[in-house]
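Bumping my old thread because nobody answered last time. Still need a sequence for this structure:
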């Protein structure tokens, strides 16, 4: 077993392509392999047979290799951040960056119905990060759902549906990734509605870091928000039950005056699909892993 681990370390180390700054996918896969197939095995063996000098040396070697790759990641992201910050045309810069690093994740339509997270999410999490998020200050009220990040592939798909002259609302925006990326990709005015103050503070810091002037985060109850300027609304199951119905009632009232579009992801799609005032453009809302588009009926 020790010889197999040694072989895996040397083989991984010899993959010179992962040391290239732009080879994010290969490097990310290598870090995962080191974590779960090398370091975990070493630690498991140490628990079984006790501290062994050969195993300890292998563990140090594996952790050094992982650290080297993570340092390359950090250097790459610092460069990408500067590119976006210094550009007058941020939407084109970000699109070019993602096309260059993760082309498969924005060109393969089949990926939009996939389950879970992937390297695109790792990429976006690192790119759109700032200081640590403060502890949550408010307890969730009945009907509110614990925050979960929207998968990157869904955000990319959603962004393609938004035009520069839309006003986009993310209802339950969390730490703001959807709002920021929709703005960066489309140029549209993008607004996040979020109940938790620490999430809003964090999202504003990220938007400020990239000097995004057409992005706003509002810290309030989604049932009390003024949506009158909105044309597109996104919900990743932020609520259930009565609260979900109350928010939909607010949007229904808005739809009596103008046509709006609602995009949904997760279990809430089934509820939204039952609304008599909405027409689902791309299905019947029964797949919680699919992005659905709804259009209001005048």
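Sorry it took so long. Here it is:
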């Amino acid at each position: 077993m020790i010889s197999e681990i040694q072989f895996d370390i040397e083989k991984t180390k010899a993959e010179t392509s992962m040391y290239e700054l732009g080879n994010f996918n290969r490097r990310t896969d290598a870090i995962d392999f080191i974590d779960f197939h090398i370091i975990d095995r070493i630690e498991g063996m140490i628990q079984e047979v006790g501290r062994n000098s050969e195993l300890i040396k292998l563990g140090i070697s594996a952790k050094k290799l992982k650290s080297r790759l993570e340092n390359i990641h950090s250097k790459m992201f610092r460069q990408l951040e500067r590119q976006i910050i210094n550009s007058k045309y941020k939407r084109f810069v970000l699109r070019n960056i993602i096309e260059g690093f993760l082309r498969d994740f924005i060109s393969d339509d089949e990926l939009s119905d996939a389950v879970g997270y992937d390297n695109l999410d790792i990429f976006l999490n690192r790119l759109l990060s700032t200081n640590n998020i403060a502890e949550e200050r408010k307890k969730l009220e009945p009907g509110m759902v614990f925050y979960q990040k929207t998968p990157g592939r869904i955000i990319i798909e959603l962004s393609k549906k938004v035009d520069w002259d839309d006003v986009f609302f993310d209802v339950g925006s969390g730490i703001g990734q959807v709002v920021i990326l929709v703005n960066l990709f489309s140029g549209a005015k993008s607004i996040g509605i979020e109940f938790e103050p620490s999430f809003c503070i964090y999202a504003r810091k990220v938007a400020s870091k990239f000097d995004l002037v057409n992005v706003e985060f509002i810290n309030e109850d989604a049932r009390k928000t003024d949506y009158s300027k909105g044309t597109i609304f996104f919900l990743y199951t932020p609520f259930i039950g009565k609260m979900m119905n109350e928010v939909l009632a607010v949007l229904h009232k808005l739809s009596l005056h103008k046509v709006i579009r609602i995009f949904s992801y997760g279990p809430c799609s089934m509820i939204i699909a039952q609304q008599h005032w909405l027409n689902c453009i791309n299905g019947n809302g029964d797949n919680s892993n699919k992005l659905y588009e709804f259009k209001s009926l005048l």
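Strands lie at 167-171, 189-194, 215-219, 232-235, 261-264, 278-280, 292-296. Let me know if any region looks off to you.
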